[in-house]
Specification:
fold of a uncharacterized protein from magnetospirillum magneticum; about 60% helix; globular; BrxA; DUF1819 family protein; BrxA_sf
Amino acid sequence: MESARYRLSFTAGGLLQQESVQLAQLYLDLKDWTAVRDKALSDNILQARTVNTSKRFCREIISRLKMLSSGELDLLVQGSIQEQAQLLWVSLCRRYQFIADFAVEVLHEKHRGLQPDLQHADFDSFFNHKSEWHSELEAIKPSTRNKLRQVLFKILQDADLLSGAYTITPALISPRVDELLKQGNAQDLLLFPVNDPEQQRRTP
């Protein structure tokens, strides 16, 4: 039986940390995502070169931010750079099951298995395995597949989960992020390269 189709539109941008915080702050002020979109476009808050680019990035960022709870949005705006990156990584994984599966099955498991390097071959192996259950992956051109890998690795680097040399960076989950995730779904901690999610108690 074929699994639910993967969304793969995350190639529209990387982690988009600064832009996401800006729109999250706007949402806390306006309390309406349509109003956020309209103001972001009218004021060119994302400083895009064209209207179409602004629309694309605005749509992408809002779709991710909608994955966060009110408490998580508050911390996204008020928290440290590290906390912001951790929350945005979670929002991406909630939005894109493809990324979530990769995070749990490859990133987390390689870290637990003391395999510190993340290689292109790891992505390719994951992609090939998932293609058996997701026909939409089989139809993807090699160039698009390479783009997905490139963007995902860039997102991991932006989130400080992967070094420039493709070495997995163990996540030190802040107590505030840890508490919020456990209020929702503690399994979200498995999205990070951590040894024991139940023992993640670190200072921001």
